[in-house]
Amino acid sequence: MSVRDLSSVLAAAKAENRAALVGYLPAGFPTIGDGVRAVTAMIEGGCDIVEIGLPHSDPVLDGPVIQTADDIALRQGVRIADVLRTVKEVTAAGAPVLVMTYWNPVDRYGVERFAAELAAAGGAGAILPDLPVEEADLWRGAADKYGLATVFVVAPSNRDERLAKITAAGTGFVYAASLMGVTGTRRSVGAQAEDLVRRTRATTDLPVCVGLGVSNAEQAAEVAGFADGVIVGSAFVKRLLDAEDVETGLAGVRELAGELAKGVRSRA
Amino acid sequence: MSTQETFLPDLDGQVPSARGYFGEFGGKFVPEALVAAIDQVAEEYEKAKSDPEFAAQLNDLLVNYTGRPSALTEVKRFAEHAGGARVFLKREDLNHTGSHKINNVLGQALLTKRMGKTRVIAETGAGQHGVATATACALLDLECVVYMGEVDTQRQALNVARMRMLGADVVPVASGSRTLKDAINEAFRDWVANVDNTHYLLGTVAGPHPFPVMVRDFHRVIGVEARRQIQERTGRLPDAVVACVGGGSNAIGLFHAFIPDAGVRLVGLEAGGHGVDSGEHAATLTAGEPGVLHGSRSYVLQDEDGQIVEPYSISAGLDYPGIGPEHSWLKDSGRAEYRAVTDADAMEALRLLSRTEGIIPAIESAHALAGALELGKELGPDGLMVVNLSGRGDKDMDTAARYFGLYNGSQEGK
């Protein structure tokens, strides 16, 4: 997989006149092995693209749900090598795989080393939400060298000029944060999202996917009405956290992916 | 009168660079959601820095509310235990609210008003920054929310009560190590969600640019005053200036005016906890590696996967796995030196200053005092030191009473 596979999956969804479904789960959660099964269930249930979280000790952009999952993964001793192994194992299910994490683990592991090993594992790219464009040269160089996408996040508070600067530096797609806040499920996805997608599109031909707060088919359909992709994270994590046992949790993940897949096909 | 010019930003400084780098340290590693707000802080601070009205407002508060300039006290009986070197304490403990923190807080609170924001959030470890922030918010009619690790709300219960008395909402943080680092994480999460009306009043010289330079500028007055006072009193510059280092705000405040004085050693004391070799410490510059935490590149206590290692110190204010980027730069350039002081040595210094001088220091500042005892022996009787007494020890009486067994009638303090 590479940035090209990612782009063709997004193009295929567009050709079907629907939004792509992007699912997120942290690696190593609930365990390394069951984490692989959970991501695979997301893909089999209907996710077109997946993001694997590399758990971090200090997830300042994550709400309580993903914090809890990261904590569980880290307490079991998940390492970067395990995350890369997870990427490699889930690629068998056929969807492009991105890694989402904070900058320090990548910086510490070695930027070039991380990019090389992610590409070797079959990863399609990375999302590094605390790495702004101004600090991203080193990463972008490595990502280009290994054919990886660099997905930047844009926020409702970004002015048009800055949006243009960010989208000019990104590849694969643009991650539009639906609201000002951390990850977590929300009752509604605000009007800010649609406006941000419109302003982002004015600066780029890259697909624009919307994340933060989306947790059900209805919201997915609403977002699919104006975005190229719908990103869901905390709702998947919650299915695993709330389940009585792993098998129920995995079934819940598969079921949610199926519902959301219908949602992105019924554009509001 | 020149002694009343207390807001003294470094207008000629060559560092940091435009992007906020001190050498390879600093920068701005933040999510896009915060970029606009941080740019606004930087722009507003640039304007305020050269606005005589801002300086006049801040100077008035620093003189008539805080009580600046703070005293410089020679401590002769204490110095007998420091190899006979002369020791002067820069008395930031005598500021209103009991620590140096108020210098920065008043500056940023005025800035908050200038930006038209109505809500202030802050993190606090020992509670000194939280108390100072709650104080400024009461004075300037700003809503105030303070995040504090759950461990710290317990060991600094007095300061929690003070903040609440001042009208602040204190939120205990139960994630991670439940200390300062986690309080900062939670403050960032709040800021991302409420950035429209909220200023994050960061309490140390860490964080994304422009915080390290702005907070440094607001504390620069400590060193500028000390440099003038020590020369008036002794006719010369000191051999060393000494301060404790958690995030590094009181230390950079003291050090900065002395950086051009090549003959003055800048000595920072980190929290050595149970000893650096024990793994239970917060000695970031002694045992850390460069990394990115809370928005800037600096030394960080971390493992080989870049996960932050939970720090430990008896002092809530020093219990932090990061450090301001300017200190990392001063360390690598060799201009400043940093050492670790154990809990035990700091507590011994706390007792010694109390018994020899009638001054009970904060446990944070006691780390600097312990460092001075050692450094004095190296300098000998001709030595001259200025030690930053960054805060008073009232808030630490419960910890100290338990440590020395004072509650059960022990006279251990003797």
From TrEMBL, chain A:
PANTHER family: TRYPTOPHAN SYNTHASE ALPHA CHAIN, CHLOROPLASTIC, TRYPTOPHAN SYNTHASE, ALPHA CHAIN. Belongs to the TrpA family. It comes from Wenjunlia tyrosinilytica. Its EC number is 4.2.1.20. The active site is at E51, D62. Tetramer of two alpha and two beta chains. It comes from the Bacteria. GO terms for molecular function: tryptophan synthase activity. The keyword Amino-acid biosynthesis applies. It catalyses: (1S,2R)-1-C-(indol-3-yl)glycerol 3-phosphate + L-serine = D-glyceraldehyde 3-phosphate + L-tryptophan + H2O. CDD domains: Tryptophan_synthase_alpha. HAMAP family: Trp_synth_alpha. GO terms for cellular component: cytosol. The alpha subunit is responsible for the aldol cleavage of indoleglycerol phosphate to indole and glyceraldehyde 3-phosphate. This is Tryptophan synthase alpha chain. Pathway: Amino-acid biosynthesis; L-tryptophan biosynthesis; L-tryptophan from chorismate: step 5/5. Keywords: Amino-acid biosynthesis, Aromatic amino acid biosynthesis, Lyase, Tryptophan biosynthesis. InterPro entries: Aldolase_TIM, RibuloseP-bd_barrel, Trp_synthase_alpha_AS, Trp_synthase_suA. It holds the Pfam family Trp_syntA. The lineage of its organism: Bacteria, Bacillati, Actinomycetota, Actinomycetes, Kitasatosporales.
TrEMBL record, chain B:
It comes from the Bacteria. GO terms for cellular component: cytoplasm. The modification N6-(pyridoxal phosphate)lysine is found at K101. Signal peptide: none annotated. Its cofactor is pyridoxal 5'-phosphate. It is an enzyme of class 4 (lyase). Pathway: Amino-acid biosynthesis; L-tryptophan biosynthesis; L-tryptophan from chorismate: step 5/5. One of its GO terms (molecular function) is tryptophan synthase activity. Keywords: Amino-acid biosynthesis, Aromatic amino acid biosynthesis, Lyase, Pyridoxal phosphate, Tryptophan biosynthesis. Its EC number is 4.2.1.20. Residues 66-391 form the Tryptophan synthase beta chain-like PALP domain. It catalyses: (1S,2R)-1-C-(indol-3-yl)glycerol 3-phosphate + L-serine = D-glyceraldehyde 3-phosphate + L-tryptophan + H2O. PROSITE patterns: TRP_SYNTHASE_BETA (PS00168). Belongs to the TrpB family. Tetramer of two alpha and two beta chains. PANTHER family: TRYPTOPHAN SYNTHASE, TRYPTOPHAN SYNTHASE-RELATED. The beta subunit is responsible for the synthesis of L-tryptophan from indole and L-serine. This is Tryptophan synthase beta chain. It comes from Wenjunlia tyrosinilytica.
